[in-house]
Amino acid sequence: MKDVSIKERPRKDPRAFTSESVLDQGPVQFHDRISQHEGDIMSIATRDVVTAQPTTPIIDALKTMTKGKFRHMPITDAGTNRLEGIISSFDVIDLFGGGDKSLFVEKKFKGNLLASINAEIRGIMQHEVHSLPVTSDIGRAFELMTKNNVGSIPIVDRNGQVVAICTERDFLGFMSGLKTDIKVRQYMKEGVETADYSTSLWNAAKIMVKGHFKRLPVVKDGILVGIITAFDIMKYIGEGEAFEKLVTGNVHEAFDEPVSSLIARDVVWTDPETDLGKAAEIMNEKGIGSLPVIENGELKGIITERDILIALAKHT
Description:
Helix content: 25-40%
Number of helices: 13
CATH superfamily of the largest domain: CBS-domain
Number of domains: 2
Radius of gyration: 20 Å
Strand content: 15-25%
Number of strands: 14
CATH topology of the largest domain: CBS-domain
CATH class of the largest domain: Alpha Beta
Shape: flat
Distance between the termini: 33 Å
Mean pLDDT: 85
């Protein structure tokens, strides 16, 4: 990928964060913090987990996830609350962005968004779900997540009932503020694919599904102007904006909007020399899952929650 210039943005822009102001104490080893909670996945997992039933309409599930601002939702049996599946924001862009799940809309509902969005969530949920018992240790959680490339692990009790969920965001908080002596450049993804400011949501979703990534930097005239995420697209549907664009009901019609209509206007970024613990702290405080990495005014890569999880797995 050709480097993207953002030279118009001053290096001292307050929205840019570097490795300065990282905690002053010496390097903290990951296992030191992990050992404080060894065998206790519940010490970092989110206990107030929201679930849905397999018969829940897709639109209702999306509304719940959008309102709660979470990207993963376990699907459980209505009577037993036992885990049956899971739905994520990425499944949504796969469904409406030309992925394998889009056949569900095209074939069963002839591309009709209004009809497909009211189908049961069981039709698109992931049926094979990795889960862990409440007695698991933290290391086992991020080992399972990195090995299977999943963004969340439901936590179940001895009866198989969902009692919590452990996500990449939880590990971001776990890592936040640590001085690791590991630089962002060591784990950032380089050669990042981008989308032009005028790219339609449909095409942006297709790019994300094809590359299997949940975030896509957006540029205008070679300048980084924002990031579009799978959650942004899910929110676009869940809050009803997509339906306002419909005339015939066709799913393509709803996604003709340019990505510029959804991106955040303020871009928070960092540089390659930022400490990984500081990067986690920034993402945690800003409620974002990634940071574009800028060096000498050019986009060099992106660091995400997933990359930080991989670093945890490697250094513990």
